[in-house]
Design brief:
The chain is built from five helices and 16 strands. It is an alpha+beta fold and 301 residues long. A hairpin with a 2-residue loop joins strand 13 and strand 14. The radius of gyration is 18 Å and the shape is globular. The structure holds 2-oxoglutaric acid (AKG) and fe (ii) ion (FE2). Fe (ii) ion binds next to loops. 2-oxoglutaric acid (AKG) binds next to strand 5, strand 10 and strand 11.
Length: 301
């Protein structure tokens, strides 16, 4: 019987209470260092990428085997399935580099990933009250520390909306790495997430934040409803490279009726895009999907 990496009852309870859980080890630091050395070069060639023209470079797990192996790794997927249920799709992966001197990431919450353009990217068709239908595994490509801007989360905040993720706000890339209206070096990659606050006068309690310091090769899980962000990278020589890998149960419609989507001032056509069925079965068949590269019949030949 193959080993299962499902969450323990205790870990599941921690997740339900807090909205996040981890860290867990996917690779030992030395192994991750050698994978990352290769991958960081490979991602520069976008000829086979799903979005070859985009500087966002999303979803490179679709063409790069090393990355595909990560999003379908049992150590990751078994834990994701403990929360989302047995039938799981990978729907997006995103790079989050933070270079020395870069601004922090504004506190934010999401679920439908409307992302300031009025269109839900993911929509559940069989949601159950209190059960998350989206989950992110944030994988550290290098050590993430409080100083280089590791992710921070606000325990228990997944039960209350502090932001309206469905409001449209302008993309203002000229403000990246500038001080914001509160005099802080924080922003949201060209958007001002503070404009989505339900109560403009409310401020999160930084004292309660948990800073997810993780080693290269580790990951943690969180629902995007759990408020998260990061401090600025105050180091002079340490770049933090995070890779957010996002999952949904198969009942969720991904980019439903959309041929392209807008994000960070770009238009991304979806003709090369599909979800990946990383665990279980897809009986809903809402989405274009494929198997992980190494599980597909061509790879097995
Ligand atoms: O890594 C970051 O700074 C932000 C990541 C994030 O917001 C996410 O993964 O949803
Ligand atoms: Fe986020």
């Amino acid at each position: 019987m193959t080993k299962s990496f499902a969450l323990t009852e205790e870990q599941l309870k921690f997740f339900n209470d807090n909205g996040f859980v981890g860290p867990f080890t996917l690779y030992e630091p030395e192994e991750m260092a050698s994978i990352w050395e290769e991958v960081r070069m490979d991602i520069l060639d976008t000829s086979e990428a799903p979005f070859p023209e985009s500087r966002l470079n999303y979803d490179r797990h679709l063409d790069l085997v090393q990355l595909n192996r990560m999003i379908s790794h049992p150590k990751l997927v078994d834990r994701v399935a403990s929360i989302l249920g047995p039938d799981v799709l990978s729907w997006r992966t995103e790079w989050f580099p933070k270079y020395p001197g870069d601004e922090g990431t504004d506190w934010h919450q999401a679920e439908s990933f409307v992302e300031f353009e009025g269109t839900e990217k993911i929509e559940p068709t069989a949601a159950e009250e209190g059960k998350p239908w989206e989950l992110t595994a944030w994988i550290a490509m290098v050590d993430a520390t409080k100083e280089n801007g590791c992710l921070k989360v606000m325990p228990g905040s997944h039960r209350t909306w502090y932001f309206d993720e469905k409001r449209n706000i302008p993309f203002e890339p000229e403000n990246i790495n500038k001080l914001n209206n509160s005099g802080e070096k924080s922003g949201f990659f060209g958007y001002d997430y503070d404009l989505l606050k339900l109560d403009p006068d409310w401020k999160p309690d930084e004292e309660k934040a948990v800073h997810m310091e993780v080693k290269a090769g580790q990951f943690f899980l969180f629902t995007s409803r759990c408020m998260h962000g990061s401090n600025p990278n105050t180091t002079t020589n340490s770049t933090r490279f995070g890779w957010a890998t996002r999952f949904v149960p198969t009942h969720v419609k991904v980019y439903s009726d959309q041929d392209s989507f807008k994000h960070f001032g770009e238009v991304l056509p979806l003709d090369r895009y599909s979800t990946v069925l990383v665990k279980g079965e897809d009986t809903y068949k809402h989405n274009r999907t494929r198997l992980p590269i190494e599980a597909s019949p061509v790879a097995a030949e």
